Amino acid sequence: MKNLVILGGGYGGMRVLLRLLPNQLPDDVQITLIDKNPYHCLKTEYYALAAGTISDHHIRVSFPEHPRLHVQYGEVTSVEMESKQILLSNHDPIAFDDLIIGLGCEDKYHNVPGADQFTFSIQTIDQSRDTYQKLNNLSAGATVAIVGAGLSGVELASELRESRKDLNIKIFDRGKHILSSFPVRLSNYVENWFEEHGVTIINGANITKVEPNVVYNHDEPIECDAIVWTAGIQPNKIVRNLPVEKDPQGRVILTMHHHLPEHEDVYVVGDCASLPHAPSAQLAEAQAEQIVQVLQKKWNNEPYPESFPPFKLKGVLGSLGKKEGFGLVADRTLTGRVPRLLKSGVLWMYKYHNG
């Protein structure tokens, strides 16, 4: 029996499972899924969990069940590609015939002293729970600093404003406008929303150091009661330690069939893969679809696809609390209630089809 091992039950790993199960998995292949958690987590909603506007239960989706799907819970410590084994902290090594690495990303601290020690995070569900406890136990009038004004920082700041109207929220951004990767019209719309709702934007920020309850902007200390870091991501440390070629962001260089050039049986999906788009849940799912096609050809001893169509991404939707939002869909900018409703609908559809 061949063993397909999937590291990580994130968006990419989940899409592989849902495409192969229940009827597309060859009789001589089994799947071993390795994950820390006994459920798939909706990472795109971690900001709301941290802000306290949704419950933990709302962002969990059960893994599928199948006689030839085995789920092993634990923390991966190493990927041994030559011996084709996965080393775990709490289990004997697991051998693989084919491997899909979908371990996701971690915060990138840009070598800022103290940032990794004295800030909170929303990169994992455990970290988001810790952040929730910290933010929602703050006393009235406390100051929260959010470092980074990309999509995650903006959604956290707006959701926290709805959850805790008493807090003093400051969001630090390096650029002239928040959401620098979006059209200026959307940046202006969100900045106006923050101004109307009492969220302080500090543009042109340069965080040089972090100490307990103190963030240094251009070496000037600003006292805070909590600091949340949303200023960049990098691949999981297991992937960073792999002796393979990587791009400048530390993501793994792959062939057009999404496997390592030197290891045809090792695939990388999602945030750890070097792809022509910014990491996202829908990009991981689109890539997973192509990996499944490659695996099916391989298992049937058929030639691999000569090419794949370009990834078709539907766009980006962001929330500003529960009633307003913003988005970029088919190169059209959306603001107000419509993008917020669209985002809620996308989330509902995802949970309905995958839960």
From TrEMBL:
Its cofactor is FAD. It holds the Pfam family Pyr_redox_2. The keyword Cell inner membrane does not apply. Its EC number is 1.6.5.-. It is an enzyme of class 1 (oxidoreductase). The keyword Cell inner membrane does not apply. GO terms for molecular function: oxidoreductase activity. Keywords: FAD, Flavoprotein, Oxidoreductase. Residues 3-283 form the FAD/NAD(P)-binding domain. PANTHER family: 64 KDA MITOCHONDRIAL NADH DEHYDROGENASE (EUROFUNG) (PTHR42913:SF3), APOPTOSIS-INDUCING FACTOR 1 (PTHR42913). Belongs to the NADH dehydrogenase family. This is NAD(P)/FAD-dependent oxidoreductase. It comes from Metabacillus herbersteinensis.
